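User: quick one - fold this with iron/sulfur cluster bound?
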Amino acid sequence: MENLLADINRLRQERRAVILAHTYQSPEVQDIADFVGDSYGLSVKAAQIADADVIVFCGVQFMAETAAILNPGRQVLMPDPEAGCPMADMITADQLRQFKAEHPGAPTVCYVNSTAEVKAESDVCCTSSNAVKIVQSLGDVPEILFVPDQYLGRFVERQLGRRLVLWEGFCPTHYTLGPETIRKMKRLHPDAKVMVHPETRPETQDAADFILSTGQMVDLAKTTPYRQFLVGTEEGILHTLRKAAPHIEFIPASDFLRCPNMKKTTLAKIKTCLETRQTRITVPAEIAAKAKIAIDKMLQISAAK
Ligand code: SF4
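Assistant: Sure. Structure tokens for the protein plus iron/sulfur cluster:
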């Protein structure tokens, strides 16, 4: 293990590489990363680093694609290119084109957990933290298409009191958390507050005290007066939360909140990736340019007061 860490540290200097890790990565991967955060925040962070030639993205494919779109002059590498996202793969660009044809004139909002091709077909992207604001910014249009996560879409519907036309995608990991599990865990931990991600089902969200993106969970942990939380999102975030707020007890809301794709990245694969500069993630220029328009529009709306 010590040799492995030493090799990674040597190689990242030789390659002028920055290592980014999503909060759902395993603790040892988070600990060697230069930055840990949510997918979009990490890509923006990478774009602000002046002296890196290489980005090693420890996450899943759509995240590395976004990093490549936002960092065109840099090599973006994935330690395990097989780490995909089943939710992102629940809609293809062809399917979205068909969906749009069935709803002419309706703008399309696309969760960043989607492929670059799907982003390129969309009007504006959103993250789980800004989805409400993005949809609201579109005004009182008759129809808005929302892809691919139906549960984030339903969360937005409930916040705004309006209907969206939802694609029926979902995250298989968050889907496993049901309200009965939360009620059982609350009986075991009666003083605990419950935080869940908006990718969970509406009935699960109803059983929680807070519905938050991963970034918002970390922000809450740093400021809350509460001392015990049940955490209803992928288990990797427990490490992030415990480091951010060591005085708080964070308990997984279920034993099944483990995304197998997020756990494909290992230290050994990071070392090999730095040695071989494989696997490079690229996005065709035309798709990247169109996807960037949807991403930039999200940024612009998000930054507006
Ligand atoms: S946790 Fe869900 S949305 Fe995130 S990468 Fe895994 S399958 Fe995709």
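One thing worth noting: The chain has three domains: 2-85+262-283, 88-170, 173-252.
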